[in-house]
Amino acid sequence: MKLENTLRVERAVRRMTQAELAGRVDVSRQAINAIETGKFIPSAVLAIKLARVFGKPVEEIFILSEESNPVGVEI
Amino acid sequence: MALSRSARYRAAGVFLAITGFLGLWVASWEGLINVYRIILPAYTLPDGAYPYPANFWDVNAAFGIVSACMLTIGAGMVFLAKEPDEYFYRIRLEAIQFAVIAQFLVGLIAFAYFYFTPGYQMENTFQGILGMASGTFLVAYALRYYAGIYFNADQD
């Protein structure tokens, strides 16, 4: 199972940098980068905060997938 | 860019630890005699030699102990400093795990090396092995921590 996310896409749609998104949810730019590249699974609180920034449900931003994806985090 | 309070606390800890390490290094090599040469040049003999003052070893021992305390307190401050977010806490955890394994391996290899060297007397070697292993922990932690933050986090 892998946890994928659409953060990079959502950011690109809104022309938002990693630093700007990080500032909106009060974390470091490195944390956003690690989440996007699948190196780090955020806590539930941070996932909800990120989803709120994009005005979408958490499940639309973070997707639990059965298929293997190089960007997803194996859980 | 202004540093946050926790970053300043950590920076003070790093400064204290490095200063303590340098002090310990100087004390280990009797480097204080060169300080004596500078502040009390009148005691230099005509041939250029400089006799050790009567209280040299007491001062050197006190200097070494104070330096070791500074190193310990500085390292403690680094590990007690708050991290900016949950990702940094994970990097810290990974760095500690990495450093503990590195420390154990270096200690084990050093011990095996001396133990299996024919004719070598192990007495008085344990302190050196423990010191080297502790140093390995600090170096491995710093390398792993900063590698995680600066080299594995490309910006888009």
Automatic annotation (TrEMBL), chain A:
Pfam family, one: HTH_3
SMART domains: HTH_XRE
InterPro entries: Cro/C1-type_HTH, Lambda_DNA-bd_dom_sf
Keywords: DNA-binding
Domain HTH cro/C1-type: 7-61
Protein name: Transcriptional regulator
Lineage: Bacteria, Pseudomonadati, Bacteroidota, Cytophagia, Cytophagales
Automatic annotation (TrEMBL), chain B:
Name of the featured protein: Uncharacterized protein
Annotated keywords: Membrane, Transmembrane, Transmembrane helix
Biological source species: Dyadobacter fermentans
TM region positions: 12-39, 59-81, 93-116, 128-147
